[in-house]
What we know:
It contains 12 helices and 13 strands. The protein is α/β, with parallel strands linked by helices and 355 residues long.
Amino acid sequence: MRRDPEGDEVVISGSNQDASQSQSRDIRLKLLAHPDRLLGIQSGRFTPPILVDIDPVDGVCNLDCEWCCQAASRSSRPTKFMSEATMNRLGSFSRDWGVKSWRIAGDSEPLLHKGINTLIGSGSESEIDMGLITNGVYLERLTPDSLAKLDWLGISLDAGTGETWSRLKKSPASNFEKILDNIADVRSKAPTLDVAIKFLRWSSTEHLGKEDFGHGLLPVIEPSTTEADNSNDVEQVKEIAADLGVRAIIKNAYPRDFADKYRFTKCHATPLGGVFDASHTFHLCCDARGIFVLTDDYTRDDWQEMPRLWGGERHRELIDSIDPRKCVGCAKHAINEVLESHLIVGDRSEQLNFI
Length: 355
């Protein structure tokens, strides 16, 4: 067992996991592999994003997690499934533009899309690194061929019993057992794939709930009525992961005062990512879908819209309009902090030239 930079517990289970996975995964160290992107942020001449989120589904989910930071975004948009033509083109476009990786997830459940294997095939043909996050209910839709093309697979389980899972996700407890069966099936079909059960330790009294997100600009979500937490399930989740031969990642949900602890004043990390959604909208931030929109049609002008807008006046104005204090759950807070303290501001007290 080890802990990541945020103090979150990461448990490695299963002999098939690569030894490198037991080493430190400080996400900030990954910046060292992308000096061109860092130089672009420092100089203001942005290069294409390293990672983009791909949302094959907009506006609908089969679960209703109490802490979902995407609930407000999901409620603000109509249901939309990415077209086959868009999925087929996204791979070559991403490659040609300079994108390195896809995180297939969204404000909705990606495996609700029955054509998900087309999207994965598109990314693979263009040599895009890919990971997928799912709640696991429809894992059977991933073919063995698609599993072989993924670099990692994350299943947001968040509970160690069907009772806890059902209470926090508003779905029949039988689906919990289905998810476990699905994970076992994935492991048998893809024995070397990096598979992790994700567990978000959450309490309605200590952590942000789904009603707390949206920057005050998206539809208001009704507050949670569940006065409960899942902390007692942690050990059971570890046992489940060990039995299934996968990793368990134990993380803490965002505390209610999370934004008050930020050590950065501007969102510098935004040019490192973005979101291609099913409706052809490109969002600057995965934590703020529907708020900071660079274009309402990234396929415009035969897919030349994004290269034209990226790093331009509108792009810069949108970034300048981001107030981190309103971003109550910034997923890139650690990267923003190191960029501001060591790259943008260059505080002399850091003695950066003494390596």
